[in-house]
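Please fill in the sequence for the structure shown.

STRUCTURE ENCODING:
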């Protein structure tokens, strides 16, 4: 059963709907939320998209900190939390109050999984993000570790230092470090899925099958008609 302990249960004036996707790198979550976004836009819904670690406010500081290896696990957590808080206050919350469907490519559960692997106290991380509203639906794209690794490593000539978890001293080989790092993140995700009631999607299925399931679940849980732009026809 999902628990919202340490996570805000709601925000005054919220009328929109928040949909998030989570999963390992290479799980296909970004592809699925892109397809969902395009479908909703083409059907005439009010839609806004936001993605992890994209705030202009802290982009320069994050880049410099990573480049010079200045980030401890706690500062790594806090700088990402600052990024999230900026986007949440300036983008997510206003659009929810304006009756939009907000789509988030990764949400606070990314921080919970990654920061736990970096040995931050899980309850402390939850308190850091306690201002965030829980999504109405969070899809977790579950894929075998080797599949996700194959997708990422097959298309990356070189892994970035923090992306590979090299700051944790897991291995001198960035590819082996990445493998261990992603494996531990997956273990944390599986705990979060049960704790917060994330919706599992079998990411090993064909892209089209996954998208059909994503849309079906959304239509079952959300009254989409109320998010139609004026003049647009409703096609359930």
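FILLED IN BY: designer on duty
SEQUENCE:
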């Amino acid at each position: 059963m999902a628990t919202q302990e340490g996570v805000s249960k709601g925000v005054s004036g919220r009328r929109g709907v928040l949909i998030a996707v989570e999963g390992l790198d290479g799980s296909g979550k970004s592809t699925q939320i892109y397809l969902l976004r395009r479908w909703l836009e083409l059907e005439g819904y009010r839609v806004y998209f936001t993605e992890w670690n994209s705030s202009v406010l802290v982009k320069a500081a994050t880049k410099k900190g990573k480049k010079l290896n200045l980030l401890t696990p706690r500062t790594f957590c806090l700088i990402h939390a600052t990024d999230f808080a900026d986007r949440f206050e300036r983008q997510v919350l206003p659009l929810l109050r304006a009756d939009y469907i907000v789509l988030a490519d990764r949400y606070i559960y990314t921080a919970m999984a990654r920061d736990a692997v970096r040995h931050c106290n899980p309850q402390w991380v939850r308190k850091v993000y306690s201002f965030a509203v829980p999504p109405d639906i969070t899809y977790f794209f579950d894929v075998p570790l080797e599949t996700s690794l194959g997708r990422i490593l097959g298309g990356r000539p070189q892994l970035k230092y923090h992306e590979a978890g090299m700051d944790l001293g897991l291995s001198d080989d960035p590819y082996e470090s990445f493998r261990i790092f992603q494996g531990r993140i997956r273990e944390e995700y599986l705990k979060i899925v049960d704790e917060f009631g994330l919706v599992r999607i079998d990411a090993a299925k064909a892209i089209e099958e996954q998208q059909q399931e994503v849309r079906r679940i959304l239509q079952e849980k959300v009254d989409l008609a109320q998010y139609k732009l004026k003049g647009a026809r409703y096609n359930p």
